[in-house]
Structure formats: C-alpha cells, structure tokens
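Please decode residue identities from the backbone states below.
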C-alpha cells in the first residue's frame, strides 16, 4: 500500500495557511507555492540513493557521500503543477522535467488529457509527480497511468492539499506510489472542490479568474 506522509512542519503549515487566504495576491501565492515545494521536496527526496565518492579537499583525500546519478524527473500536472517545478529544481537542478496536461471537465469532473511529454528515458528515472491539489484523485490517477504506460516505474506524488476521497482513490489505483501532502482537508463540496481548500489552484497561480 502507498505510504502517505502529511507534513506537520510549522513553516509548511504557515505557508499553506497564507495560500488558503483569499486575500493573498497572485504574486504572493506563486512565491509561496515555490517555497512550499522546496520545503516538501527536501523531505520527499530523503531516500534518494547515495554513493561513496573519493574527492580531494584542500587538506587531504577523503570519501564523501554524493547523490548516485542524476536520474530524476519532475512531472507537473498542467497547469497548476507548474507552480511546484521551480522549487523542486532549486533542490535538484539537474532533474529533467516532463509535462502531463490534464484538465477537469467542469460537468463530470473527469480528467481530460491534452498533452504528455516525458524524458525519453523515463523508465530509468525516479519520478516526482507534482500538483497542488488532490481532490477526487482523477487527475493524479490519470497522470500516473500515462507515466506508467510510457515506462515510468518509480513514482512519488506530491501535493499541497488533499481531500480524503482523493487520497483513497490514488492509493487504490496506484498502491506502489507514495504520497506527500502538506495538508489533509475535510472533504469535497458538490463541485468537487476541496473544503476548506484554497479555491482553484491554477487560477490563483496565474490570476485567471
Ligand atoms: C486542478 C488541480 C488538479 C486537479 C485536481 O486542475 O491542479 O490537477 O484539479 O482535481 P481532481 O483530483 O478532482 O482531478 P484543473 O483541472 O483545475 O486544471 P488547471 O491546473 O489547468 O487549472
Ligand atoms: N482543483 C483545484 O484547483 N481546487 C480544488 O479544490 C479542487 C480541484
């Protein structure tokens, strides 16, 4: 079964609280998304493989631990997932970035695919799928389906706010995928928006409403 990690770090909680506030501007929201991605990414990358390497300091030769290879891919679910990319790249600047484009049909709330471009060697990479919101879970499940169909195997999902329904759906569909969440909310409303949530993450990031 998936491991689900809900962050209780004060800095993350504080920043997510600011993002929820409807008075937070688009500029502030975008900056906060980047900061939270970095803080979450720090923990989500805890188990990256290391290797012992010999280097020379100005004093002597020594063995140090360094990241083994650079085989990481960050895959944002468009559009709102883009808000997490710069924060993750600040931590792992050599990661490759794939994109999965999905939007929720406003009537059915089902995900509709419009784009998918992944690194060609995706099967070799440790993959971090990022999207601020896990509501019904439909978008995350569909994005991970696409990635697996193209060979992706080692997948972690990171989001800002999740509804219990979305976590359950994602765990059932992809039990091999660990889930990192900054905050777990109460429920979905009749329009499948997370309550209390933060509204429409894409609109808040890009000022489109
Ligand atoms: C939002 C969000 C997720 C999805 C979550 O995207 O960024 O991708 O909804 O909902 P779900 O768990 O019920 O599928 P949206 O479809 O609004 O597209 P956008 O990012 O382009 O605004
Ligand atoms: N997508 C969002 O952007 N917000 C929600 O609350 C649910 C889905």
């Amino acid at each position: 079964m998936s491991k689900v990690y809900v962050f209780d770090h004060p800095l993350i909680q504080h920043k997510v609280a600011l993002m929820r506030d409807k008075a937070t501007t688009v500029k502030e929201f975008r900056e906060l998304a980047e900061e939270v991605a970095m803080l979450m990414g720090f923990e989500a990358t805890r188990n990256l493989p290391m290797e012992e390497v010999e280097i020379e300091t100005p004093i002597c030769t020594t063995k140090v631990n360094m990241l083994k290879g650079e085989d990481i891919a960050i895959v944002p679910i468009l559009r709102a997932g883009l808000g997490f990319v710069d924060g993750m790249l600040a931590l792992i600047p050599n990661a490759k970035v794939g994109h999965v484009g999905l939007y929720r049909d406003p009537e059915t709330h089902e995900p509709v695919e419009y784009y998918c471009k992944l690194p060609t060697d995706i099967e070799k990479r440790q993959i971090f799928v990022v999207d601020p919101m896990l509501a019904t879970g439909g978008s995350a499940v569909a994005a991970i389906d696409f990635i697996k169909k193209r060979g992706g195997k080692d997948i972690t999902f990171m989001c800002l706010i999740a509804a219990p329904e979305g976590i359950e759906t994602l765990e059932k569909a992809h039990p091999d995928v660990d889930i990192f969440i900054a905050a777990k909310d109460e429920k979905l409303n009749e329009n499948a928006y997370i309550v209390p949530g933060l509204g429409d993450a894409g609109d808040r990031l890009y000022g489109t409403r």
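Observation: The mean pLDDT is 96.
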